[in-house]
Specification:
Organism: Catenulispora subtropica
Strand content: 15-25%
Domain Glucose-methanol-choline oxidoreductase N-terminal: 68-271
Helix content: 25-40%
Pathway: Steroid metabolism; cholesterol degradation
Largest sheet: 7 strands, mixed
Low-confidence stretches: 535-540
Keywords: Cholesterol metabolism, FAD, Flavoprotein, Isomerase, Lipid metabolism, Oxidoreductase, Steroid metabolism, Sterol metabolism
Region (Disordered): 526-551
Number of strands: 21
Radius of gyration: 23 Å
Oligomer: single chain
Length: 551
């Protein structure tokens, strides 16, 4: 009988939470294996296309729940490969939110002052820069001009983009083939590989159990690289430390499926899910009014008709991120380019009796897609999402070869959440319908429910064992040696793009994980410098290929 495979640290997922943990623990001397359920694509494999089988369907995971659908990354690099690279820090008041539990949601040990040095550390690694008005897309410029016209302020966003490499192709959501977007493929992950970490794509973790010596055994399936429903093999790896970073839609499912093997999970596992209060509105612009009211011109006789050009979201309006406002009345508004596909389906036609997301009028506005402007709301929701019993395998029952599945999340928005959406919808309408600039309607919830690209809080940190699955060190309560460092650990909606905060929390968690690893017999140290990107994604993938081939 062959000996079981063992490693010091097993990391599940390779997004911000997983990549940061893998780098620091490998650089500190631990043996690290990373299991990632999606494929590992090189920069040149990111397609400017959304046909089936292109990178766009291979690297996304779209899971439809009951009342809420989640869109996330499904590839090495996770959400950092498919995000728009907007990287604001969370507002200071967010850390004092009380939410539905009626008391401070965040642990007493964490506030904005505590987290700022960890934000700084992440910024060294990516890096992050403040965009200026020269970086603004036509869509961003129009949004800024409309805000000014209605009495709001608007500002370029901080972003993890190398402006010298960026070609303004606006395909960054499908992965950046020019290495201009600072995904984790360019920094933490190749640096982790350079320090000996092994990254295994197309490995979907199923559950965790205990070994006789008090360590953990992680069971996984390997899946086909074309049809993710096809299981090619299965196996287990034993580890002294497990770091879960599979995302807020998958980490709680793994823990729930592990309960028969590990014993009871904390009550908050799979509860208090937040969709970051997200909401989308589409404005169908009147090109003549854009010219006459806002005075905009591209110099070629057109005023706008160009939101497919640029970097994605470049301009946001943060006037309603006001700590003096009551909770559930605060939100941010961000200009967003959403490529043809899901957005085209869910956008509603103005001035049409419901249902307005299909029909003759919808067909007419689709013809004018170049005159669309999409505004993205991030508001304060009520953490009302709950995960039901897990599916037999994975995080969802896959419906197609790639991308689409049905998951166990149930989300019924409360009056608090609906209040935030109502106020933000009204403000978008006020700004963009002023003086006839456009007609505005939110995306429909009739097709896939509400939707989020920033799922959070399904295994959150906190001080109260009843309402938080993790302590303030990100360790699962009652299961020493299992840590969670992805978006599921964030206590609630952040009102801004959350990637920077997820990464900062992961950085903050590493010293505690190192201490726990040392207590469990791992010879590991903390103190590696920020990865400088000197090892490229191509270098890392070649090294991994050589290792798997025995070279």
């Amino acid at each position: 009988m062959s000996a079981p495979e063992r490693t010091d640290v097993l990391v599940v997922g390779s997004g911000f939470g997983g990549a940061i943990a893998a780098y620091h623990l490998a650089a500190g001397g631990a043996e690290v294996v990373v299991l990632e359920r999606g494929p590992w694509l090189r920069s040149e494999e990111f397609d400017h296309d959304f046909r089936f089988g292109a990178s766009g369907t291979r690297i996304f995971d779209f899971v439809i729940g009951d009342g809420m659908s989640l869109l996330g990354g499904n590839c090495v690099g996770g959400g950092s490969v498919v995000y728009f690279a907007a990287m604001p820090r969370a507002p200071r008041f967010v850390f004092e939110r009380r939410g539905s539990i009626g008391r401070r949601m965040w642990p007493a040990a964490i506030d904005r002052d505590v987290l700022d040095p960890w934000y700084d550390r992440v910024a060294e690694s990516l890096p992050i820069s403040q965009l200026d008005w020269n970086d603004a897309t036509y869509a961003g410029g129009l949004w800024a001009a409309a805000c000014a016209h209605s009495g709001r302020t608007a500002n370029p966003v901080p972003a993890a983009i190398d402006r010298e490499l960026c070609t303004n192709c606006n395909w960054m959501m499908a992965g950046c083939r020019f290495d201009a977007k600072r995904s984790l493929l360019l920094n933490y992950l190749p640096a982790a590989v350079a320090h000996g970490a092994e990254i295994r794509p197309l490995h979907e973790v199923q559950h965790i159990s205990r070994t006789d010596d008090g360590h953990y055994r992680v069971a996984y399936n390997t899946v086909d690289d074309v049809d993710y429903r096809v299981v090619l093999d299965s196996g287990t790896i034993e580890a002294k430390i497990v770091v879960l970073a599979a995302g807020a839609g998958a980490t709680p499912v793994i823990l729930q499926r592990s309960e028969p093997h590990l014993g009871p999970m904390p009550h908050a596992v799979g509860r208090y899910f937040s969709g970051n209060g997200e909401r989308l509105n589409t404005a169908i612009l009147n090109e003549d009014k854009v010219s006459s009211v806002l005075g905009l011109s591209r110099g070629d006789g057109r005023a706008y008709a160009a939101n497919q050009i640029g970097k994605g979201p470049t301009v946001a309006s943060w006037d309603d991120l006001d700590p003096a406002k009551p909770e559930f009345e605060r939100f941010s508004l961000e200009q967003l380019y959403f490529p043809p596909g899901l957005g085209t389906i869910l956008a509603q036609a103005p001035d049409v009796a419901a249902p307005a997301w299909f029909g003759a009028e919808k067909k007419e506005i689709v013809k004018r897609w170049q005159s669309w402007l999409t505004i993205f709301t991030m508001s304060e929701d009520d953490n009302e999402g709950v995960f039901g019993p897990p599916p037999p395998t994975g995080n969802a029952a896959r419906y197609s070869q790639q991308m689409l599945g049905f998951g166990p999340l149930s989300y019924k928005p409360t009056k608090n959440t609906l209040r935030g959406w109502e106020l933000s919808d009204a403000e978008v309408k006020r700004v963009l319908e002023r003086d006839g600039l456009s007609r505005v309607l939110p995306w429909t919830n009739d097709v896939v429910g509400a939707y989020t690209v920033h799922p959070l809080a399904s295994c959150r940190i906190g001080d109260d064992p009843e309402t938080s699955a993790l302590d303030d060190r990100h360790e699962v309560r009652g299961h020493p040696g299992i840590f969670v460092t992805d978006g599921s650990a964030v206590p609630g909606a952040l009102l801004v793009n959350p990637a920077f905060t997820i990464a900062a929390l992961a950085e903050r968690a590493i010293p505690g994980i190192v201490r726990a690893a040392r207590e469990r017999g791992v010879d590991v140290r903390y103190g590696a410098p920020a990865p400088d990107g000197s090892v490229s994604a191509r270098d890392a993938s070649r090294k991994a290929a050589a290792r798997s081939a025995g070279g």
